[in-house]
Amino acid sequence: MAAAATPTAPDQAPKMQVPGQLPFDPSQAPVIEGFTPITLSKNESFKEKFLRKTKENPFVPIGCAATAGALLYGLRAFHQGKTRQSQLMMRGRIFAQGFTVVAIIVGIFTTSFKPKQ
Predict the structure, then answer these.
(1) Which member of 1, 35, 89, 112 lies 3.0 to 4.6 Å from 74 by CB, making a disulfide possible if both were Cys?
(2) Where is this region: Disordered (predicted)?
(3) What is the DSSP string of the chain?
């Protein structure tokens, strides 16, 4: 019974780690077998990337703004005691969230079918 617990090949001995040492270097990108990361030709700022993504799929920011607007307006109505209007705005928020998710999915499909440049 004790013989079954020992490794069959001596070259496959478990590696011992030093306590407190990570098994990888967090300052470097992980190495994933079979995956080659895409390198961008230039570094984009946040603003440039946001504008590029908005031009690629303008419905996502519209859906995000509609979701935030419905949420804020619904919370304001709830605070004022207008329960009917608050409920309608919360339903509108759910609709806007669904619209945003569908816009993201459609954007992913259209991007995947675009020819590579």
Answers:
(1) 89
(2) 1-23
(3) -HHHHS-SSGGGPPPPPPTT--SS-TTSPPP-TT--PPPPSSPPPHHHHHHHHHHH-THHHHHHHHHHHHHHHHHHHHHHT-HHHHHHHHHHHHHHHHHHHHHHHHHHHHHHHSPP-
